[in-house]
């Protein structure tokens, strides 16, 4: 095994940078060239068909079958002209990845001739077998069929298969035979619809020209790059996506010299190649840089409509994996692939935009716009305050359990950072927020609130420890895990904000019916919201132990356990709001809860098996062999009457024996705990047993193994070490 390690190291260190020829065109010339975008539709569709598709994209209106036939013909012509041979409905089942079933663009006639074929029926709907996708009980064996349906609001695109052919990918929803959502896209589309209606209704009080409000998202993606040879020499990385063993190197990230440093040439070549492929697919990747941990990097896109941004992030992760192969890398999206250094998040930057071009979370110096800004800001704060546990559940996973609360990540406590200027403004509003009306629509607050304080000067983005932070003109949900589908937290966030905006409108309407002035009524409601929600606002260091104690005093929950966090999905209040808003019905909520629990169980189970295998078959066996060598040396020294000189070796032999004994005992106990959990029929109980009794042994075993790594001769150690994986250029 050690030979395998050194061969992998030699291969990795002898890699040369793969040359990536620079595109001859400007980015603007090929950006989106692999997408069936608006310009392509204008060219290939009749005006009538183009108008109907555009209306479907903008308002969700239905596309009739005749128009679908025309769109399908245009898509096929466009795709085949670019080398496509197959098409697929591209969807996002509840596996955490994306799914495809490729069909060729042809059929065979009775005479045996092949003819090109792609009808509107195939564009609009397909029937992939749903039997192997997680359903949480939403389908029976005799109802294994599932349906995928075209989502016109997300453009079809071409995926290069890397072997001379391309596939037309059609973004789609995925539902069960009985109509329930089996994917991420269906509920996110529902959530976006209800948010649009609720926010547009509230905007009626500020601007009656607004007809649509769109949620926007920019998902910053953190990731690690590991040389492919080193990756395959680590069975734990291959099996579980993270290293279950590995002693911290002498130099990790403590100097923070990797952060924003010069990008290594080989990594830069990968990034250039990836960005070129992303731009062809219309993914607006704009930023790339080194992250703080060695071997860690980040890319960030421009903001987009939220549904499209989620599709693009899912596609981006798939694309990164494929491009990395060309550069002999493996991409790690796991939230905590290496102990002792930063893990990876996916910072979800969220806001709301009107069809008149106004960002509803952008502060302003104009009084009327300030009132609008505060209205939407405080409704978001109130929504997060009232449904913090549900928002916490939306980011719970086996991987994120390692990251949340660690040194570089937000704690499991959901809190909101607004910045000192906004807090001062809200305190003043609560305590002395009198309003006087003058001519026109201007609203003036006393005590310096006639204009927004200078919070625009980037002083809202200084607290990197907050899980949910206001960052100037958006909220950034930083607690989302690096491997997550952003749809999961965005379904919840958009739903609870839509619900809160509906409640706000009801309260305001009731006051207006009593004859209150609109501006006075709004201010009074916002004052109440601030008073009710202020305990969730925290401007300090979220990493500190003091905050954990302070949060407990405030009554904020700190749910570190993933099974317990997931349990918040099925709290009556959570089910009620999701069902009331028409985003997920009770069956769908319970199904997702069960799916997430099963996913957690399986991931912890895999890690447990990997730990047992590596500990006994790799580490202990190596330790025993090395111990035998030491014993032979000690014996020789004793025979030479070098008793004192033999003593350190005897102590080393004893220490190895003790650590091997602890490892073997712990692995056996962990296996028994796993058997106990597996024999438990109740899924929530099984998940809790895996999260406590099984997982409790992980660190115990790791501690002993990592100590052995420092004791055993480097030439004999079987696993690629951290220093060898993290610093490859």
UniProtKB/TrEMBL annotation:
Domain of life of the organism encoding this protein: Bacteria
A GO molecular-function descriptor: glutamine synthetase activity
Domain GS catalytic: 191-619
GS beta-grasp domain: residues covered: 85-179
Biological process annotations from GO: glutamine biosynthetic process
Protein family (similarity comment): Belongs to the glutamine synthetase family.
PANTHER family assigned to the protein according to its UniProt record, in alphabetical order: GLUTAMINE SYNTHETASE, TYPE-3 GLUTAMINE SYNTHETASE
Protein's name in the database: Glutamine synthetase type III
Organism ancestry: Bacteria, Pseudomonadati, Bacteroidota, Cytophagia, Cytophagales
